[in-house]
Design a protein that fits this description.
The complex is a heterodimer of chains A (108) and B (115). The radius of gyration of chain A is 13 Å and the shape is globular. Chain A is mainly β and 108 residues long. Chain A has strands spanning 3-5, 10-14, 19-21, 24-26, 32-38, 45-49, 60-61, 72-74, 83-90, 96-98, 102-107. Helices cover 0% and strands 54% of the residues of chain B. In chain B, strand 5 (42-50) and strand 6 form a beta hairpin. Classes of the chains: A mainly beta (108), B mainly beta (115). The A-B interface holds A 6, 32, 36, 43-46, 49, 51, 86, 90-91, 93-101 and B 3, 31, 33, 35, 40-45, 48, 50, 55-56, 91, 93, 95, 97, 100-104, 106-109.
Chain lengths: 108, 115
């Protein structure tokens, strides 16, 4: 069965520090992975998808099939990055499974 | 487009009462999802529809939960009878079928409190 694990419920860093939000998945097929973000008082929205190999708001995520991971990284965190981040896996039948979420706080 | 519209935004009810949450997906989207968000378990998929037909309801916790999609522009999630452990934020989301890479668009959520 497919599963997404985000081991850290809370993560706190200082402005300008690097940040890494961890995501591990289990899926027997070929995974398609995403990061979604929920800023305070805003809707949950797509941040980036692994197939696009894009950098959004300075964030990148690389799929590591050997480690079954899709960690989200940013070299220099900003206060406006404070939000809830969800890693998600889409499987056959269009089912999108989310992890438990990580609340990121960037302190001034 | 106003995006995915959910109502009510907040609902406070007493244990045993019936709760109905409503969702209007984005016009033209053929997939609709219902999720439940809690601190402990994150976002859990309850059920999803394709072209108004329920595809996977394995996430519906109990028979007290039911969902319908009578047409392409409306869906309901009903809890009867409600219990305090049902307290959570319920999200509706929709997307266009685009292989497995279509972006999911979320509503603002319905915050349910069962006393």
């Amino acid at each position: 069965a497919q599963r997404v694990t985000q081991p850290e419920k809370l993560l706190s860093v200082f402005k300008g520090a690097p940040v890494e939000l961890k995501c591990n998945y289990s899926y027997s097929g070929s995974p398609e992975l995403f990061w979604y973000v929920q800023y305070s008082r805003q809707r949950l929205q797509l941040l980036l998808r692994h197939i696009s190999r894009e950098s959004i708001k300075g964030f990148t995520a690389d799929l590591n099939k050997g480690e079954t991971s899709f960690h989200l990284k940013k070299p220099f965190a900003q206060e406006e990055d404070s939000a809830m981040y969800y890693c998600a896996l889409i499987t056959s039948g269009s089912r999108l499974t989310f992890g438990e979420g990580t609340q990121l706080t960037v302190n001034p | 487009d106003a995006g995915v519209i959910q109502s009510p935004r907040h609902e406070v009810t007493e244990m045993g009462q019936e709760v109905t949450l409503r969702c209007k997906p984005i016009s033209g989207h053929d997939y609709l999802f219902w999720y439940r968000q809690t601190m402990m378990r994150g976002l859990e998929l309850l059920i999803y529809f394709n072209n108004n037909v329920p595809i996977d309801d394995s996430g519906m916790p109990e028979d007290r939960f039911s969902a319908k999609m009578p047409n392409a522009s409306f869906s309901t999630l009903k809890i009867q009878p409600s219990e305090p452990r049902d307290s959570a934020v319920y999200f509706c989301a929709s997307r266009v079928h685009r292989g497995r890479t279509g972006e999911l668009f979320f509503g603002e959520g319905s915050r349910l409190t069962v006393l």
